[in-house]
User: Fold this.
Amino acid sequence: MAFFIKTAGQAFRIEPNHDNIRRYCEGYICEPCDDFCDVSVTPEEIEAERQGAIDAAVAEHRSTEFSKGQLEILTVHRKIAEFMPGVGVFLFHGSAVAVDGEAYIFTAKSGTGKSTHSALWRRKFGGRAVMVNDDKPFIMIKDGKAYACGSPWNGKHRSGSNVILPIKSVCLLCRGDTNEIYKINSRDALPTLFEQTYRPSSPDKLARTLGLLHGLTDSVGLYRLFCNMSPEAADVSYEAMKEGL
Amino acid sequence: MKLKKEFVTHQNDNEHVTVAAGNTEFTGMLLSNETAGFIIEHLKSETTEDKIVDQMFEEYEAPREVIAADVHRIIEKLRSVGAIEE
Assistant:
């Protein structure tokens, strides 16, 4: 039976082929409404997702076995990501954690240590920290401000919350022996940010995504962090980004 | 010649960016300054290298041969990433 979810302020209708997706979307299910986008997928679309899923799994050293239910979850996500730029939202790869109501996003290639670093923040701040989305937050640009949005697609640890919070800073994370952070400009940040941004297949939606990326770089602090896994890494990154240094 | 339709751009106060959509081989991002952005924007409709040099010569105060060399270099760069339809 069809159900509705809401993420990044947008409602979607899903008519599932398999059981998994409804369970996966728990916490985001909403009442049926009039203003929605239908992101139901066909068995053919689900099967077409398989090769891409396997390629991504190989790159991240994960299992390459996917059930049809798992592939449906990925296919619906792709459909939502293709739709979003039309309503001022794009899909981003990073770990978004909020402290005192402001979101900070750490981004890097898979395996660099984004989740490890945001886990250090949660240890440092305890109840003051809220995990927005540990892997693929939607970023909404509205009235010149950027917001990080929770969604059911929140990484292998399923870590995130159904919230929409203003973004204070975005941080490009690199491994280092010591902990150092630098403020960078949009020119330095854009190529990496673009690498970690979902690229819609249509030129029109891609052009909108570029505009939204500029909306992000125009409205938040941009940083490059070299860090190890010690608790001090979280002190260094938070102090600089909080104060805008 | 013309910029291929898969190549899309965006300009803000700081920079002009160009990327490619779909299954294009080029997956990076070209970051351009004002003059390179000017050239890319003029390539959105059918044109020639000479026409772009003329347009730039009207817009910017620089010797024609300097402009011609710049235009050539940038078009070659675009060609190398498969952005130009001849």
Notes: Chain A touches chain B at residues 185-187, 190-191, 194, 199-203, 206-207, 210-211, 213-214, 217-218 (CB under 8 Å).
